[in-house]
Amino acid sequence: MVKLRLKRYGRKQRAVYRIVAIDVRSRREGRDLGKVGFYDPITNQTYLNVPAILYFLEKGAQPTETVQDILKKAEILKKFLPKLNKI
Given phi > 0 = left and psi -120 to 50 = alpha, else beta, which region is 82? Predict the structure, then answer.
């Protein structure tokens, strides 16, 4: 199963995250299938590759709660909300 989740980068106390599509059995910094975005919680900056995100969602990838909140703020999940609420 594939998930859209955060992958931690940066130094201590200054973490930044990449939003990646990754197999659920991989560890947090493990090998990802594709990078689909970037999130910096300190400056609250977000970059999302919308076509890549939609591609993985159409193939059945499930976002984690944190990534789902980020995608809701960007209003990307309007098409996929009925499917995600059932899970």
Answer: alpha
d(CA 44, CA 26): 27
Give the model confidence (pLDDT) of 10-52 as tens digits: 999 999 999 999 988 877 677 888 999 999 999 999 999 999 9
Asked if 28 contacts 40 with a C-beta cutoff of 8 angstroms, the reply is no
Token pair of 42, please? 């300190």
Give 67-84 pLDDT, tens digit per residue.
999 998 888 877 666 555
8 Å CB contact between 53 and 71: yes
84, two tokens: 């995600």
Q: What is the largest CA-CA distance in the chain?
A: 38
On whether the CB atoms of residues 18 and 6 are closer than 8 A, the answer is: yes
DSSP state of 50: H
